[in-house]
């Protein structure tokens, strides 16, 4: 079974690499932009989990190997989709920061009498970067005659734009005026972004205490604990 280990590892790495979503650079608008997700899709995670589970079961063998394989497979299934590259994190942060502005621009364009397609096109030109790429792709799809509900469902695959996508899809399906739905969406996006920023700030503050503890702990031990222990030892002797 030992010669199979490098093969199984190579297959697992290949599956993970193939399933990692492509990040489209700023300024480019393709269909993959709107479909990009911040985490590894489930099909890639499932394939990697199967390979890891089989590899562990074949390597260990017996009931113990089967149990270990199942445990490692489940862990791979859960952990791999949560893996993010620095480009993924930067894209998510940029989308979260730009989303309220995009919704405000769409609401202003619609209030001035523009169509949804024209409003989306104007917002995509006004907001460069990740949000602009997504809106540019949506504009191209709408101009080609794609179903607006499908287009907005695709945009909604990005969590940062899910609120906008739900409102736009509801408006396209029911005929409800989108301009009346967007102000509340913008407020919700701002509140969500503010909460996330505050959470990151609190997390950073907590993480900063670890280096301080590591720096002060040796001094505390040398100046506070060692003299006390030395005096006790001297008294006992």
Automatic annotation (TrEMBL):
| Main subcellular localisation | membrane
Please state every residue range assigned to the domain named Type II secretion system protein GspF.
Answer: 104-224
Q: How does it sit in the membrane?
A: Multi-pass membrane protein
Location relative to the cell: Cell membrane
The domain of life for this entry's organism is Bacteria
* Entry keyword Membrane: yes
Keyword vocabulary terms for this entry: Cell membrane, Membrane, Transmembrane, Transmembrane helix
Query: By its UniProt entry, which Pfam families does this protein fall under?
Result: T2SSF
Q: Where are the transmembrane segments?
A: 47-80, 210-233
PANTHER family, per database record: INTEGRAL MEMBRANE PROTEIN-RELATED, POSSIBLE CONSERVED ALANINE RICH MEMBRANE PROTEIN
Protein's recorded name: Type II secretion system F family protein
Which species is this record about?
A: Longivirga aurantiaca
């Amino acid at each position: 079974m030992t010669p199979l280990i490098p093969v199984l590892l190579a297959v697992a790495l290949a599956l993970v690499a193939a399933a990692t979503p492509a990040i489209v650079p700023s300024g480019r608008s393709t269909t993959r932009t709107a479909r990009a997700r911040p985490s590894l899709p489930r099909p890639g995670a499932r394939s990697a989990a199967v390979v890891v589970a089989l590899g562990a079961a074949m390597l260990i063998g017996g009931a113990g190997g089967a149990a270990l394989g199942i445990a490692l497979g489940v862990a791979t299934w859960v952990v791999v989709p949560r893996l993010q590259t620095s480009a993924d994190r930067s894209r998510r942060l940029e989308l979260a920061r730009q989303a309220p502005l995009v919704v405000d621009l769409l609401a202003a364009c619609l209030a001035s009498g523009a169509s949804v397609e024209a409003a989306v096109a104007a917002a995509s030109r006004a907001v460069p970067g990740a949000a602009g790429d997504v809106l540019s792709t949506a504009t191209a799809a709408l101009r080609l005659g794609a179903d607006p509900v499908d287009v907005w469902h695709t945009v909604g695959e990005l969590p940062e734009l899910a609120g906008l996508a739900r409102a736009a899809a509801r408006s396209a399906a029911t005929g409800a005026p989108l301009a009346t739905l967007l102000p509340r969406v913008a407020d919700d996006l701002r509140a969500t972004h503010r909460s996330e920023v505050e959470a990151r700030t609190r997390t950073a503050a907590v993480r900063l205490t670890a280096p301080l503890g590591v720096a002060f702990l040796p001094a505390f031990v040398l100046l506070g604990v060692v003299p006390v222990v030395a005096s006790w030892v001297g008294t006992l002797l």
